């Protein structure tokens, strides 16, 4: 969201309204957008809060006791900084007179009640951005003034007549004049040569016989206040201020530099030649490749005093592997008298290897001897940096493992090797199960730590010649070259499954995660890198479909399944727009009376050309792709609207239960979504029941407690679904503000055949009674199951014994018959 605060300081907003509800509602909306909010209940209190808190924007109700909004807005303008803070007036009045009063009081904008929240959000964002831009501009102008005043270079502004308009402190130091001495004076006072052909200079014309464009660097003679000469290097640039054409002259005193250059030109010929080619280490070498001269900084860079190396051969101090390249470079320089560059490793006096880049050029002495001047630079750090860059290009930044590019390169090489030697190799494609839930629940920082731990485990369970890579996200690949049989790859996969399943402790969290693995073999499943990766990926998806935490070997039939999955995914993305989803309702009955007391809303996907697609075929895919979020909101809205319609039709009110997926429950705006749906459909919150699974509730128990209390405060009933299939802490279960526990159908199904599951079912009932919670059994299909649950005083049941999930019109027939009876 654009106005939402991600990082840095939150914008502070002052809300002023005598209505406690409006202050609460405004705070709720603004804080959900990431702002910090303070409030006041009248104008007088608002002025006090403003003095203390200094908000960036004020939302002010017009009509309030003690002091109304118009008076408070007027007084606000008189406070220090108050005239620069935007004020939005909030009023029920809409005629021009009241709007004029708001603006005359100093308001920036207004908004009417009832408030259109989207409009309010837009106006708050717009005004904050405008205020921040204004502040930024003021800071920029102050920075520019400071920069000019403290610049080392002289900065002079002149107009088109050459009259000085500004003169910074550095200019004062260069010329000895104060700013007051020269303002309004001609630039000719400081630089007599500047005025030669001044007009054409600024338009790109001629100065002192040379063509110089405005903005080009050139030298010119200046005159100080004491009459002494100064050599100036300057540039000229044009700009406009208040439609006036002006020029900025940036200048630097280079008198000392010019004197140094003159002294340098008078130095010996050898040093002149050397300085023409280098700015680092300088050495002179004869035709026998022996040192004749070394600059003093050899001592600092390589640890040798120059005298220690005079007469020694250059190659004696070069890393042996690099000597052939250096010798060849010497030969080319002497033979062709050309500039030659060579990179090599020099042995420091301490024995350390240092990388050097040297450029050589020949010259002839007065006696006709050939000499080479070498200019050398220590590039060790650059080499290390380039090596780091090369490593980063082929390795994953988080785990340090090879990335997709390096993995494919190694796979291609191993395929070529396997082809020559008629060998097999295997590619394992891994995807961590439910990793996105860890990221969404506990944050990306903890998710990154988990990925690094898993990466280390994978490396520890393969051979030294195998390659483990991270392709991105929670996807890893393993290359197993030179395997003798399929069982070798399967054995590694089993080891990896066990290794990943081991608990991971990060800070206070103990995480349990698993992985799904697909295996493709060369040459049977592909003869190139792309085919093997694609087929291993396909096999991995089959492992996901088989319940996760397993491995699957690729078979050609999987491609058909993959295409089917892709077709379902593509259809799923368009299903909402095409109105292909329908909501079925399954009755929930009282165990003692047998009467319908509620229903569960269950989504179905009806494709015109295929009919109903089972939920098991598209719900997991919707979870993986994130489409479950819009689908879940649609189901919630549809179920609430239908329940309200049945109530309006005169049927006895029933509570509708809607299941929340893991992704929906982790949404930061879930409460806002549910609140909006209830408001739009008109359904009272007490007739809505939201269900979350036990595993979702325990993913982040502290978050679950907070979220459930917010939903309960709205009046919504809450239930834990599939209870008994996950791991619940009774401590947290007591803290959850839930109304019901739902016994998972896997335990109900075995009643009469499995004593352990009977014990679990009866234990859940006792637990619910102890915690004063209702208990619902789902999946009840037989009289034996019904009798057992009734005997143990279960509260509610649902299942085929009482009715299958049916379309709304058929469910309406059921409640009509029951009402009539």
From TrEMBL:
Spans through the membrane: none
PROSITE patterns registered for this protein in UniProt: EAL, GGDEF, PAC, PAS, RESPONSE_REGULATORY
Residue span(s) of domain EAL: 565-819
Sites of 4-aspartylphosphate modification: 61
Entry keyword annotation includes Protein biosynthesis: no
Domain GGDEF: 423-556
Gene3D superfamilies for the chain: 3.30.70.270, 3.40.50.2300, EAL domain (3.20.20.450), PAS domain (3.30.450.20)
One GO biological process term: regulation of DNA-templated transcription
UniProt keyword list: Phosphoprotein
Domain Response regulatory: 12-128
Domain PAS: 140-193, 267-337
This protein's record includes keyword Phosphoprotein: yes
SMART domains reported for this sequence: EAL, GGDEF, PAC, PAS, REC
A Pfam family the protein falls into: GGDEF
Domain PAC: 216-266, 340-391
Biological function: May play the central regulatory role in sporulation. It may be an element of the effector pathway responsible for the activation of sporulation genes in response to nutritional stress. Spo0A may act in concert with spo0H (a sigma factor) to control the expression of some genes that are critical to the sporulation process.
Protein name (database record): Stage 0 sporulation protein A homolog
